[in-house]
Amino acid sequence: MGKRLVTQHRGRGGPRYRAPSHRFHHKIDYPQSKEKMNGYVVEIIKDPARTAPTAVIEFENKAKIALPAPLNIREGDNVSYNSGEIKPLTILPLSEIPEGTEIFNIESNPGDGGKFCRAAGTAAKVIAKFKEYILVVLPSKKQRKFNPSCKATIGIISALGRLEKPILKAGKMHHIMKARNKLYPKTSGVAMNAVDHPFGSGRGRHVGKPKTPPKNAPPGRNVGLIRARRTGSKK
User: Fold this and answer.
1) Tens-of-pLDDT digits for all 235 residues of the chain?
2) Cβ-based neighbours of 79, under 8 Å, separated by 6 or more
3) Sheet harboring 78-81: ordered strands across?
4) What CATH number does the domain containing 12 carry?
5) 203 in any annotated domain
6) Helix, strand or coil, per DSSP, at residue 3
7) Omega before 98 cis (within 30°)?
8) Which pTM value belongs to this model?
9) 95-98 long-range CB contacts below 8 Å, 24 or more apart?
10) Coil, strand or helix: which one is 130?
11) Distance CA 192, CA 10 (A)
12) Are the C-beta atoms of residues 157 and 102 closer than 8 Å to each other?
């Protein structure tokens, strides 16, 4: 009898692997109003749910939202919504943002609050504008078409040097990963015992069987190259 794989144990949904959302502060979102509004940055906080600081913004109608804080923004700075101004932390539809402007927190569909480019130090760029769509190059260098009505924020997200500080101890990484309930360290399947993983045991780090499981394999066997398009070395 073997034991449950880590992937199976995580699927149970226990507290060890569940995201600690009770410690998260704000949801990133945009106002649903189409009117021109002005606001200001109430405070800049560190949200454990995100890699970048979060700017809490309050508008004239007392509505509050939260956005990733861009570079060179301080508490008390003014924020514009649908005003047509081109300056950091201005929220505009993509159709009104000039080509070559760096943006972040881009909506995937109009009104969803922003889905793309929200990590620390990242920014996308508008490279072409058409009547049917707006072409944006993402931080991954991939180009994507967006609805012209999708909103985005002008600027570059702060905390650009977050990854430059080295992690000198395994304990430091342990606490970083535990803050989000991420699995750490990750053990390779071939390094385990036979009771712990289908790839375990054997002589050295050797799988000993095809990495692509059978089509009708049970959940405990569904590891490796699931539904692989091809196997073997390229010729």
Assistant:
1) 567 787 778 778 788 888 888 888 999 999 988 888 999 999 999 998 899 999 999 999 888 999 999 999 999 999 999 887 888 899 999 999 999 999 999 999 999 999 999 999 999 999 999 999 999 999 999 999 999 999 999 999 999 988 899 999 999 999 888 888 888 888 888 998 888 888 888 888 888 888 888 888 877 777 888 888 777 777 6
2) 38, 39, 40, 41, 57, 59, 89, 90, 91
3) 64-68, 54-59, 37-45, 78-81, 90-93, 151-154, 102-104, 124-129, 134-137, 143-146
4) 4.10.950.10
5) yes
6) coil
7) no
8) 0.79
9) 95/129, 95/134, 95/148, 95/149, 97/126, 97/134, 97/152, 97/154, 98/126
10) coil
11) 17
12) no
Pairing of strands 37-45, 90-93: unpaired
Closest CA relative to residue 189, chosen from 1, 11, 2? 2
Q: How many CB atoms lie within 10 A of CB 209?
A: 12
Question: Would 163 be classed as within a structural domain?
Answer: no
Q: What is the number of domains present in the chain?
A: 2
Same domain, 139 and 47: yes
The domain of 188 spans: 1-17+183-235
Which are the contacts of 85, defined by CB distance < 8 A and separation ≥ 6? none
- On whether the CB atoms of residues 47 and 1 are closer than 8 A, the answer is no
